[in-house]
Design brief:
The chain is of the alpha+beta class and about 675 residues long. It is about 25% helix and about 25% strand.
């Protein structure tokens, strides 16, 4: 039966049935209501207090059994034109027209919304610039000795949470009502009006700008563990601070009996209590709380990445320097220059970070941190002069022996210094445009910092491409040498090579680019790496996917797919044609360039590309080549033709417009990449 006041009753009589329906709706949809409250509550509360407050808001939304129950008109569940496709279905009966359970859920949802929004409201007489005091905010439960956190998400979830923290609660509420509850804009406006929001239309308009352009992705993130206060992890609070507070309480009890209540309130607050917003951040900003790995940990763990790096450098004990670096990370002042690689957020650390390095390099005090998850952070301040400090963020999630082998610690002029991983046993430098020249030894200090290494030229003539050739210690892997190159980010990119397929052999896998064949391929394609500078590249692989006999003489040409994978996931592909060349370093011709694609990866193993080519006779041809599963190539348009196999050549005018398609071994059709 719907929750309403029967005609034979008056407001003086409680509606026990309505309270029971509300309780049933709360029990049935408790996780959904708590998630809604968590999104609407101010992120400034901190994750621990927001989890507790979300549960408190929902549990206290249930009226007492003897209370008067008046149900408001609840907007029906409907989808606006702005809603993403394929959302999770709303619970049955969200609107009052759908029966008792629907009216009860809608009524409970409105009460939850009102209570969550109340956390940002101040009394009219309270000064607008000051936050409401603790006594005026809704209370939250206290968990003694533990801190609660929803499961950590990725960088995208962090970015969404940061965007939500920058808007008022009404906007967060409108965003959640549309993406979590599936209300259209008019329904969200009506529900916000019922929750006493001053300007519901403005809140809905501002919410429409959040999560763009991928609203469906934002919806999926709202439903992820990052925003689920019902599935949490626990950690102890600051044990030392807690012990000090207990002593403070005992002293207060003995000395100030008349002020007992105030003393207990001030002295026994656990870390993260609602009235101590700075308490939660204090351990993170304390240099004494920094994580430090033992020097030999890397040789005794299966996780060989930045978590295995020990703290090195001459100033690892400088608490003042480390404190300045942590405070800059927590909230950089205007004098600090901040840079981030694409897909990296500059949010403060959620837990004490790991110290990787603190020392003096090239006239600057440099500190390197790892946040334990997806980022390496570099702080640098000049030792003299009036220059400001710099703070650089880079993604390093899922780093390994090679992608976690080095970090840029300093760049000056045309050179850079690297801090090498503790498992690097040998380091040399070589020039990719001199494939036959052996590597030159690279000096490394006791603190793991290299001598200056020339940087690839960003502009002008591309007449050299310096790289580091590193070899891992035999304590973790035997005779493992690999190449990395500086592409302008904190972490250098790992270079690999996949040789062309053999007849009847299974597909080859990427391997280290240290062999003669790999070095020759990179000698002709190294200069194309310029286009990847500063884009957050994790690794670049050269895949020799085809070899072709050319018309008019039978000379051979090669086809390479150069794939750059970024730390954030998307990749970029350059297909390059290696025609006959007078020099082993003649640059290849880029015939296709594609962003955000799975091509030339294990998720995109088939490729077809074409180009125009001029023979020594002066005649022009259209050439095409495909990967090992291509069985036939066909050309249509200005020139028509077909050929069996993975390569194709046909006479064609220089600027002929030709469409190329290929048939695969399994019967599928493949279009040429452009």
């Amino acid at each position: 039966m719907p929750i309403h006041q029967p005609q034979q009753r008056t407001d003086a009589h409680p509606d026990r049935t309505g309270v029971q329906q509300a309780e049933a709706a709360l029990v049935e949809h408790y996780p959904r209501l708590v998630r809604l409250a968590y999104v609407v509550l101010p992120p400034a509360l901190g994750r621990h207090r927001r989890v507790l407050a979300a549960h408190a808001v929902v549990q206290r939304a249930l009226p007492a059994a003897g209370s008067r129950v008046r149900h408001p008109r609840v907007p029906a569940q409907s989808r606006g034109s702005d809603a993403p496709e394929g959302p999770e279905p709303a619970p049955e009966g969200v609107g009052p027209e759908q029966g008792a359970s629907g009216a009860a859920y809608g009524w409970m949802r409105l009460r939850v919304l009102r209570a969550a929004l109340a956390h940002e409201r101040r009394p009219r007489w309270w000064p607008g610039r000051l936050p409401a005091p603790a006594a005026l905010r809704p209370a939250v439960p206290v968990v003694w000795g533990l801190r609660l956190f929803p499961r950590a998400g990725g960088v995208d979830e962090l970015a969404l949470d940061r965007a939500l923290s920058a808007v008022p609660g009404a906007v967060r509420a409108a965003f959640a009502l549309q993406l979590l509850e599936g209300l259209d804009e008019s329904g969200a406006r009506e529900l916000l009006a019922g929750a006493a929001v001053a300007d519901p239309a403005d809140a809905v308009r501002r919410a429409a700008r959040l999560g763009r352009p991928d609203r469906a992705g934002a919806q999926a993130m709202l439903r992820s563990g990052e925003f689920d206060p019902c599935t949490v992890q626990t950690r102890p609070s600051d044990l030392l601070r807690r012990r000090h507070r207990v002593r403070a309480v005992a002293a207060a009890l003995c000395l100030v009996a008349g002020g007992l209540a105030f003393a207990v309130d001030a002295g026994t607050r656990p870390a993260g209590d609602d009235r101590n917003p700075a308490g939660a951040a204090a351990p993170v900003l304390d240099p004494a709380g920094l994580l430090r790995t033992s020097a030999d940990r890397w040789a005794d763990t299966s996780r060989v990445d930045f978590t295995a790096w020990p703290a090195r450098g001459g100033r690892t004990g400088d608490g003042e320097l480390l404190g300045r670096a942590l405070r800059a990370w927590s909230g950089p002042p205007g004098t600090v220059r901040v840079s981030t690689t694409p897909g990296t957020v500059a949010v403060p650390p959620a837990q004490p970070p790991r110290l990787l390095f603190a020392g003096e390099v090239d006239g600057a005090a440099v500190v390197l941190f790892h946040d334990g998850g997806v980022r390496v952070v570099r702080y640098a301040e000049p030792l003299s002069g009036s220059g400001g400090a710099a703070l650089d963020f880079a993604r390093t999630d899922d780093a390994d022996v090679t992608t976690g082998a080095a970090v840029v610690v300093s760049r000056t002029g045309d050179s850079a210094r690297f801090l090498l991983a503790p498992w690097i046993a040998e380091s040399t430098t070589r020039d990719l445009l001199a494939p036959a020249t052996p590597g030159q030894p690279l000096e490394v200090g006791r603190d793991g910092v290299t001598a200056p290494v020339p940087r690839p030229a960003a502009g002008g003539a591309c007449d050299s491409w310096p790289v580091l050739q590193l070899r891992s210690s035999g304590r973790i892997v035997e005779k493992h040498a690999f190449l990395v190159t500086d592409l302008g980010d904190l972490a250098p990119a790992h270079l690999t090579y996949t040789p062309k397929p053999g007849r009847g052999a299974p597909a080859r896998q990427p391997r280290e680019a240290t062999g003669a064949e790999a070095l020759l391929a990179w000698a002709r394609t190294a200069c194309s790496l310029r286009t990847l500078s500063g884009s957050g590249v994790r690794a670049v692989n050269n895949w020799a996917f085809a070899e072709q006999k050319l018309p008019e003489g039978g000379a051979s040409a090669g086809w390479l797919c150069t794939r750059a994978d970024t730390w954030r996931g998307p990749g970029r592909v350059l297909v390059q044609f290696l025609g006959p060349a007078a020099s082993p370093t003649d640059p290849a011709a880029v015939v296709a360039d594609r962003d955000d694609t799975a091509l030339c990866s294990r998720f995109g193993q088939h490729v077809l590309a074409g180009t125009h080519w001029k023979a020594a006779s002066g005649r022009w041809y259209v050439l095409a080549a495909g990967s090992r599963a291509v069985t036939r190539i066909e050309a249509t348009g200005a020139v028509r033709g077909a050929a069996g196999g993975a390569t194709f050549a046909v006479r064609a005018p220089r600027d002929a417009e030709v469409e190329l398609t290929a048939s695969l071994r399994g019967g599928e059709t493949l279009a040429a990449v452009r």
